[in-house]
Write a structure and sequence with these properties.
- It is a single chain.
- The protein is α/β, with parallel strands linked by helices.
- Helices cover about 40% and strands about 10% of the residues.
- The strands form 2 sheets. Strands 2-3-4-1-5 form a 5-stranded parallel sheet.
- Helix 5 (about 130-145) runs antiparallel to helix 6 (about 155-165) and helix 8 (about 195-210) crosses helix 9.
Length: about 250
Amino acid sequence: MKGVREFLENPNPLKPLVMSFHGSTGTGKTYVSSMLIRYLFQRGLQSPYVHHFSPIVHFPHAEQIEQYKESLKRWIQGNLTSCGRSVFLFDEMDKMHPGLIDVIIPFLGPSWVVYGTNYRKAIFIFISNAGGEQINNVTLALWYARKDREEISLQDLEPAISKAVFENPQSGFWKSGIINEHLIDFVVPFLPLKHYHVKQCIISELLQQGLEVRPGVVQEVADSIPYFPEEEKLFSSTGCKTVASRISFFF
C-alpha cells in the first residue's frame, strides 16, 4: 500500500497512521497486521513496542468504561513516551463498547504534542469482522454482474462498509469522533477468499509445519472447507481460518 510505505519512510509524518481492517473471519486481517509489525520490529507481535487490545480481555465490563478510558489513555501516553513508533492494535472492534475508543482521539490527529508527548510516528490499527457479511454480499453480487473479485474497487465497497460499521449502534465506532473527524487514513476491506487463495494458505501452512507439500493433499484439504454460495461454491465460508486444524486429518 503506497500510503503506508510513504508514512514509514517519512521521518516527520504529519499525523499518526490510522488504519481500519474489515472482513469476515479468516480473510487475512490479522495476518496483514502481523506482516506490517514484523517489518517494523524483529520480534513482531512479541515486541514490547506493540500493544494488542481485545475488548473481551481488556474491556469486558460496560459499567467500568470510564476506568477503561483512563487506563487506555495513560497506557498509550506512557508507551509513546518510551517509543514514538509504537503500534497499537485494537482487535474485534465490533465488540468494543461504543464510546470507549474515543478516548484515543487526541492521539490520532495532526497536533504536534499531546499530554507532553510527540506521537505522530505512532501506528493505530483497528480490526473488525463488522462489514464482513456486506463485503461478501457485494463481492458475490458483482461476480453475478460479471465483475471478478480482482476488479473490485474500494468505491464498490465503501457504502456497505459505512452502513455496517460506522452507522451501526452495536459497533465500537458508533457515533465516534474518530469517524466524524475523518481520522482514519485507510479503510481496508478484506474480500472473501477463492479456492486459489485457500490452496496458497494450505501450502504455506504445510511448509510452516515442516510437512511435504503433496498436490493431492492440498486439493483434499481445500475441498474439505465449506464454500458459498451453495450452488457455485465460489468463496470460502471460513477463509483460511480452519486450514491449520484440517491438515492433521490428512496426514
